[in-house]
Amino acid sequence: MAEIEVGDEVRELRVTPDKYLPHRYAGASGDFNPIHIDDEFAKAVGLPRNILHGLYTMGLVAKASAVALAGGDPAALKRLSVQFRGMGVPEQEIVVTGTVKSVNGNRVVVDTVATQGETKLVKNAEAELEL
Amino acid sequence: MALKTEAVGKEWEGTTYQVGREKIKEYATALGIENPVHFDVGAAREAGFRDVVAPPMFCVVYALPAIAPAILDPEVGMNFATMVHGAQEFEWGDVVCSGDEITTAPRCLSIKEKLGNGFYVFESTSVNQDGAQVLRGVWTNIVRGA
Fold first, then answer.
1. Do B55 and A63 touch (CB under 8 A)?
2. Average pLDDT score over residue span B115-122
3. CATH H-level superfamily of B15-19+55-143
4. Where are the domains of chain B?
């Protein structure tokens, strides 16, 4: 593998969750909060439509760093912290980008951002991997 | 308005989750994760794992059922109408594989007011059947105008 250096851009991940993704994620995760799977309910509580699970977006952030830096190795990610910001919606592309913040031996810390259009879904995300 | 803080330090009973191959496959499929170690036991063993491996964020599957009673506890007293999931941190230990039994116990770390909003922070600790820690989670819920 090429040497990883501070400031390196991590290969970005682009995903467009389809209309039924929140339903599949609800089934997979066990989180059936109606704001994610019921468009009418979501609108009734003042949301624009049913919204993505924040932990789904965090799952994409985890996947992005593991795929870009560790060949998808599930044992590489040691820590991930995120702050949730804007609400994600189905049927619009999500872009996950990252920059290497520090390298300490085989430990790499990546600053990550997930955006959807103009909306920041996740900010101040920090992923620590052991490579 | 002053927040109720009696629940700080409170611990709830843990829940145990039995990890299975099909559930790992379902989670990996929803996330579009393609590594065969999440789908095929042969590929997982070839890569040095004892069975089909859970992706790190599979932790929501075994940790959410444990954290939910803490979040819903009337003694904590969060106003769900204005609650949002504000931040999340996970630290992973041993890898989780199919066949593992993961026990997760939650605790209320802090309840604080900042700029008129309530910050409710919970910690979860998950261990496997051998007592090895597989996950520590820090869950921050924000209640607007608390």
1. yes
2. 94
3. Hotdog Thioesterase (3.10.129.10)
4. 15-19+55-143
